[in-house]
Amino acid sequence: MTQGFPMAMPGQRIGLFGGSFDPAHEGHLRLTRTALQRFRLDRVWWLVTPGNPLKAHGPAPLDQRLAQAREVLRGDPRVVVTDLEARLGTRLTADTIGALVRLYPRVRFVWLMGSDNLVQFSQWERWQEIAQMVPIGVMARPGSRVAARFSKAATIMADRRLPEGQAGRLTEMTPPAWVMVNMPMTDASSSAIRAMRQKSGDGRG
Ligand SMILES: Nc1ncnc2c1ncn2[C@@H]1O[C@H](COP(=O)(O)OP(=O)(O)OP(=O)(O)O)[C@@H](O)[C@H]1O
Ligand SMILES: O=C(O)c1ccc[n+]([C@@H]2O[C@H](COP(=O)([O-])O)[C@@H](O)[C@H]2O)c1
Asked: Is the pLDDT of residue 148 over 90?
């Protein structure tokens, strides 16, 4: 495998967790640990994006966000923090997933996201193509669970939704397939942390 690309064994179940991580926080950690358990994943790869295509303002430098994300994870061996999108030269999730399924044809990938992202999902470029490529695991986030449930993407994919009790089968499903699971809620958010840092005059944010 090319340098900087994580190793993966054939048949491994890997969650792809894309985000700005500007900065990473307890919510990302909780989502990751819950996904590992509920979807019976072997690994989760944090795809630290060079920049969310829907966000107008660029985030902090990529190296800074990668280093901080690794600190938050405190060496959990099941989680890999990667700059794969920068290496692949992709920004759009459809392109990133397309490249990864070609590079790792025998890995069982699932896409992970918080419920606030499911609300917006129908605005992502070629979102239905994403849903055709990999199953999707959605984790409830305070304030967006109901909106996510009635979102455009959820409505269009309603007949492909797994009951929460069957979340452990998500990686075996032929996409499109998705499930929304509850997790211990935390209202941690990167924007709240950035706002707090700005208020306290900490230049990092
Ligand atoms: N507290 C949380 N609970 C559940 N999911 C979360 C939580 N915080 C972030 N996520 C999810 O993590 C992914 C990456 O989010 P991101 O890095 O943008 O963090 P954020 O806190 O949402 O940032 P911002 O506040 O700047 O929008 C998204 O899928 C988002 O839904
Ligand atoms: O591909 C798109 O059109 C698209 C639009 C919005 C967000 N995304 C991805 O969604 C993930 C979460 O983004 P964010 O900024 O909410 O952490 C991250 O991997 C982004 O690249 C992707």
From this structure: yes
pLDDT at 205: 43
Q: Which of 115, 124, 133, 190 to mutate to test the pocket of ligand 2 (most atoms within 8 A of CB)?
A: 124
Terminal Cα-to-Cα distance of the chain (whole angstroms): 35
Between strands 79-82 and 108-114, the pairing is unpaired
- For the chain, counts of helices (H) and of strands (E): 9, 6
DSSP code for 162: P
What does the pLDDT look like over 55-84, one tens digit per residue?
A: 888 899 999 999 999 999 988 999 999 999
Instruction: Report ipTM (2 d.p.).
Output: 0.97
**Rounded alpha-carbon distances, angstroms, from residue 134 to 62, 77, 174:** 26, 24, 8
Ligand nearest to the CA of 48: 2
Give, in order, the Cα–Cα distances in Å from 72 to each of 2, 28, 46, 123.
Answer: 26, 9, 12, 30
The pTM for the full model equals 0.96
Q: Which fold has domain 13-199?
A: Rossmann fold (3.40.50)
Candidate of 30, 65, 116, 145 to mutate for ligand 1, largest count of ligand atoms within 8 Å of Cβ: 116
Phi first, then psi: give them for residue 2, nearest 5 degrees: -60, 150
- Centre of ligand 1 to C-alpha 27, Å, is 7
What distance in Å separates the CA atoms of residue 9 and residue 5, rounded to the nearest whole number? Answer: 13
